[in-house]
Design goal:
The protein is α/β, with parallel strands linked by helices. It is built from six helices and seven strands. Helix content is 51%, strand content 20%. The strands form two sheets. It has a five-stranded parallel beta sheet with strand order 2-1-3-6-7, sandwiched between helices. Strands 4-5 form a two-stranded antiparallel sheet. β6 (92-97), α5 and β7 (115-118) form a beta-alpha-beta unit. The longest helix has 18 residues, at 123-140.
């Protein structure tokens, strides 16, 4: 990781609620980070599966937002890896993707996502989803 990445990793620890955003579209990743940070979440954004693996290897992040189509892999594979690598019941994964067919949704949930939103959703939809996720993460950690 670069020095700036280390600063971001330290910053995410300062917040009680952390979200890892795995999204290759830089503008969307920045918009999500801004929205989530303004709502009080600690956010770390990465663009690839490899970067996400490196972060998850060194941090406990209770909530993730994962894109389906990433430049170095499928978000579904990443979700399955996270379910195995992390305490499966103590992590909440939101699949946020432009693929919004019924089969895409079924595939995402079958891969281990807790929830599924289309990128056509609103910022309020994402915040509502994470609010539900927060309740779930708190319940799971007891």
């Amino acid at each position: 990781m670069m020095e700036n990445d280390t600063i971001e990793v330290r910053r995410i620890h300062e917040h009680t609620i952390s979200v890892l955003v795995v999204e290759d579209d830089e503008l969307l990743r920045e918009r999500l980070s801004t929205v989530l940070e303004s709502a009080g979440y600690g956010v770390l954004g990465v663009a690839t599966c490899a970067e996400a693996r490196a972060v998850i290897g060194g941090l406990v992040v209770p909530m993730l937002i994962v894109d389906r189509m990433l430049p170095d892999g499928d978000g579904l594979d990443l979700i399955q890896e996270f379910r195995i690598a992390c305490a499966p019941n103590k992590i909440y994964i939101l699949l946020l993707t432009s693929l919004d067919g019924n089969q895409d949704r079924s595939d995402g949930l079958a891969a281990g996502a807790d929830d599924y939103l289309s990128k056509r959703c609103t910022e309020i939809d994402i915040l509502n989803c994470l609010h539900r996720a927060l309740r779930s993460v708190k319940l799971r950690s007891k």
